[in-house]
């Protein structure tokens, strides 16, 4: 039986007839591995930058400031120089066109999927430092490798030229964990305050119920109010009757004066105002 000497590349284990071939493959594999590791590192750094704003912002002001800073690192020649967000918290925003990272959208409003999530919803206005490859909301695109994640733009477009753009915007609360934590804490504080307010009101009511002197005075006030209502009703009746009596006596006098005025007209040819 004949035996054949062969050489394997220690990296990819490809078999070669000569040691030189295996060594050449090893060098190529090492170079490819270094380049692949470098590319993975660059992609990881880019991904970290793309997620930096949403993972670290603690306020709307932070989102604007950080977006301007990160846009310079993602796109050195063209970046955001001005940015304004006007948003408010909404408990349920439709997920028809976007959704929190890792969650489904639901354009068809299917019953087996969520139809919305809590979010900061409103508008965004931003200006690029100059024109270039980026236009519109490209800086926030989730599809490329240079867009800031978490800022979902909707309807909108160019605003008065000058590289300025405005859009509807949705910031899903699940995508901004530090802001979400603050809002949830605020809701807890509001609930605690309402509970405390209700407790104080109940204690106040109990104190009033136990104060006999106060109860007597309140009953007297209630009685006086009822008397006032009764007297007011009687006053209205008397005023109505008085008006009818006045009209009853006034009518004959008005007729008498009218006849006298006509007679005066006839005797002297002067017209007399008969209003009464």
Brief overview:
The chain has 276 residues and is an alpha+beta fold.
Top keywords for this entry?
single chain; 4 helices; 52% helix; 6 strands; four-stranded antiparallel sheet
Describe the structure.
It is elongated, with a radius of gyration of 43 Å. The protein has 276 residues and is α+β, with helices and mostly antiparallel strands. 52% of the residues lie in helices and 17% in strands. The strands form 2 sheets. It has a 4-stranded antiparallel β-sheet, with helices on one face. A two-stranded antiparallel sheet has the order 1-2. Among the domains are: 7-50; 57-175, no CATH class. The chain starts with 6 loop residues before the first strand and ends in an 8-residue tail after the last helix. The chain is built from 4 helices and 6 strands.
């Amino acid at each position: 039986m004949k035996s054949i000497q062969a050489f394997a590349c220690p990296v990819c284990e490809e078999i070669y007839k000569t040691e030189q071939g295996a060594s050449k493959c090893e060098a190529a594999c090492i170079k490819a591995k270094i380049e692949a590791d470098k590319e993975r590192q660059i992609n990881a750094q880019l991904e970290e930058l793309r997620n930096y704003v949403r993972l670290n912002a603690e306020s709307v002001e932070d989102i604007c400031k950080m977006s301007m800073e990160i846009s310079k690192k993602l796109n050195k020649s063209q970046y955001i120089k001005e940015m304004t967000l006007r948003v408010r918290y909404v408990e349920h925003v439709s997920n028809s066109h976007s959704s929190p990272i890792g969650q489904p959208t639901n354009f068809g409003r299917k019953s087996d999927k969520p139809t919305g999530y809590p979010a900061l919803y409103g508008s965004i206005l931003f200006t690029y430092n100059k024109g270039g490859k980026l236009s519109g909301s490209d800086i926030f695109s989730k599809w490329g490798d240079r867009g800031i994640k978490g800022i979902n733009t909707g309807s909108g477009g160019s605003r008065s030229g000058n590289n300025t753009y405005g859009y509807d915007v949705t910031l899903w609360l699940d995508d901004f964990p530090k802001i979400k934590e603050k809002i949830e804490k605020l809701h807890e504080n509001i609930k605690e305050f309402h509970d405390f307010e209700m407790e104080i009101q109940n204690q106040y009511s109990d104190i009033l119920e136990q104060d006999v002197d106060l109860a007597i005075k309140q009953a007297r006030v209630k009685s006086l109010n009822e008397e006032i209502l009764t007297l007011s009703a009687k006053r209205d009746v008397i005023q109505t009757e008085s008006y009818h009596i006045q009209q009853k006596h006034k009518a004959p006098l008005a007729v008498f004066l009218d006849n006298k005025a006509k007679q005066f007209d006839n005797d002297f040819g002067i017209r007399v105002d008969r209003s009464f």
